Amino acid sequence: CTEVKTYRIGVSQCSEDDWRMKLNDEINREIMFHEDAEVEIRSANDNSAKQIDDIRYFVSHGFDIIIVSPNEATTLTPVIREVYGNGMPVVIFDRNINDNTYTARIGVDDEGIGRSAATYARNLAGDNAKAIEIGGLEGSTPAYGRHKGFASEFESLGGTLLASVAADWNKEDAIRVADSLLKLYPEVNLIYAHNDRMAIGASETVRRLGRDDIKIIGIDAAPEIGIQAVADTLIDATFLYPTEGHRIIQTALAILKGKPYNRETILPASSAVDLSNADILLLQNETLKEETCKMRLLKARIDDYWAQHSSQTSLFYASIAI
Ligand code: FRU
After folding, report:
1. ipTM value of the model?
2. If you average pLDDT over residues 188-208, what whole number do you get?
3. Secondary structure of the chain in the HEC alphabet?
4. Quick check: CB of 110 below 6 Å from ligand 1?
């Protein structure tokens, strides 16, 4: 009888939010198709020290591979370099580190997203486009790319970027930043936020200050938050930040099984989600949720069947032995 090896995959998420929940769902859905693998997901809740502990937990508990989305590049680089240097395979996804001490990386073209957002913003705000930018956590690589792409493209298209302030990816900080920037720059006609949570925070501020003339765009397009906010006209547009949880798991398993995989994957920037397509995307998401539910049900039935089958088989062999 051959031994079935179980591959243990540790996933270290930097945060817990709508976008990461979507990604975690995809990871859990993909793992259903790999009988020889199991996954544990830990979230650092935006705390780099906690994320270092989570990575060490996976090492000390005998996991076979670690998948990490590093909260801040500089703080997380040393531990990832150390773990990788000791022979543990590491897959980096979404946020990056400062060097290339990893087995594979799946990232997104954040600069490209910034450029697409700039083109859209310029069209939305017209010839006299005056924007403020509410940025992600300084030191997390997508915040850098999203700023760089937006700032250069927006200004080359004739827009003016009045100010750029970090709000650490969260809604509360974005409300505060939007409030003070709108008082400093009353001429603003567009807010570009690096994610939808911050865009929704900015939208609350804009409404409270009676500045409904200001256009707002975000990034992520997780259905329940970002796309819903577009459908509800809280924000004007969002840009899809791909999650690709299935691809992350497939890459990890290819590494563990010695199969071919891409060392660097950069997923492309997307076009805008706005009122022209938000409803259809929400509908597609409902369909996906229903299919996932059915898949889970089917998987539970198959597991049940095999559990019964194997107990009957062992009873049969036991009776022969007697
Ligand atoms: C989720 C998040 C997203 C953003 C991504 C960038 O934790 O803040 O909103 O697009 O991280 O890494």
Report:
1. 0.96
2. 98
3. CCCCCCEEEEEEECCCCHHHHHHHHHHHHHHCCCCCEEEEEEECCCCHHHHHHHHHHHHHCCCCEEEECCCCHHHHHHHHHHHHHCCCCEEEECCCCCCCCCCEEEEECHHHHHHHHHHHHHHHHCCCCEEEEEECCCCCHHHHHHHHHHHHHHHHCCCEEEEEEECCCCHHHHHHHHHHHHHHCCCCCEEEECCHHHHHHHHHHHHHCCCCCCEEEEEECCHHHHHHHHHCCCCCEEEECCCCHHHHHHHHHHHHCCCCCCCEEEECCCCEECCCCHHHHHHHHHHHHHHHHHHHHHHHHHHHHHHHHHHHHHHHHHHHHC
4. no
